[in-house]
Amino acid sequence: MGSKVAPVKNPSTAHDHASPAAAFSLQSWRQARLRQRGKSQCQMLFTALKTQRRRQIPRCRPVLLHKHGDVQETRPVDAAEFMNAASQGKVNVIDVYLADGGNPNAQDELKRTALHRASLEGHTAVVQMLLEKGADINLKDQLGSRAIHCACRGGSLGVVKALKSHGADLNVRDKLYSTPLHVATRTGHTTIVEYLLSCGAKMNSRDREGDTALHDAVRLNRYKIVKLLIAAGADTKIKNHVSFGVTASQQVKQWQSDIMETLQRLEKLREVGVVSPENSSTEE
Predict the structure, then answer these.
(1) More reliable by pLDDT, 230 or 66
(2) Whole-angstrom distance, CA of residue 178 vs CA of residue 202
(3) pTM (two decimals)
(4) What is the tens place of the pLDDT at every residue in 186-214?
(5) Strand 70-73 relative to strand 64-67: parallel, antiparallel, unpaired?
């Protein structure tokens, strides 16, 4: 009988069946090549700087970034990648974009900036970097929202504080006349509401429907926020623009016994002068 012919292995799949030792050697070889490439680019950059050959410096970009011991090359970052990086908190990508002269105030199709996106997602480090690199804190998106509105919607106290430290207006309005306090109340971020009140945010401002933050808190059953607003002196007598006008107290449903009790207690305190009426002035 004829001798058996050994099956021929497909070269394209040979690496799939390699031994663990061979796979480890291949990985080590790749890492060594990356390190060597990194050293070469560092030497090129050093030589360019030493000899003042500034025209060679751009050739040394891509910048070397070190992550988990691996050397990675970065390519130029465009505006779309920059915007996505702001949403995802990728500081390194943003740094490359800005270092290459990218516009920190680039806007997407909804006129949102990177600062809007980072503020919404709660990336404090990105927000700080953008502000330091010239991001405009007052730019509006299509709905008239500024970065401070997005921060209050996202619920990051660190971002709100960072924006305020750079001059953000805590009483600014969007196209619906909503203030940051309205937004934080609707989204239920109690710590943000407390911070805004401590900074002197106007608590009786009314939106386009005539609702104050207290109207919103009662309607959405935000009991803790109702207590905060009342303790700060929110006016329970302000009527909104619905029908003939409804106060926050008149919005209370029968099942909202805790809120009703709190509002009634406030009225009694006002009757005996414990709560100053001047804290309840209407703010348009």
Answers:
(1) 230
(2) 12
(3) 0.70
(4) 999 999 999 999 999 999 999 999 999 99
(5) antiparallel
Q: 233 CB contacts (<8 Å, ≥6 apart)?
A: 203, 275, 276, 279, 280
Residue ranges per domain, the chain?
57-147
Query: How far is residue 146's CA from residue 129's CA, in Å, rounded to a whole number?
Result: 17
Q: Tell which residue, 202, 222, 195, 175, has the closest CA to residue 281.
A: 202
Ranges assigned E (strand) in the chain: 64-67, 70-73
User: Which residues, 6+ apart, have CB-to-CB distance to 255 below 8 Å?
Assistant: none
The amino acid at residue 27 is Q
| pLDDT tens by residue, 148-184 | 999 999 999 999 999 999 999 999 999 999 999 999 9
CB 148 within 8 Å of CB 179: no
Interior CA angle at 67 toward 129 and 44, to 5°?
A: 90
Separation between Cα atoms, residue 25 and residue 217, nearest integer Å: 63
DSSP H/E element including 27: helix 20-50
The rounded distance, in Å, linking the Cα atoms of 171 and 173 is 6
Per the CB < 8 A criterion, the answer to whether 115 and 148 are in contact is: no
**Tens of pLDDT, residues 225-277:** 999 999 899 998 899 998 778 888 788 775 677 777 777 777 666 554 545 54
Q: What pLDDT shows up at residue 55?
A: 53
CATH superfamily of 57-147: Ankyrin repeat-containing domain (1.25.40.20)
Token pair recorded at residue 49? 């700087």
- Lookup result for tokens 């105030």: 105
Residue recorded with tokens 């005996």: 272
**φ, ψ (nearest 5 deg) of residue 69:** 85, -10
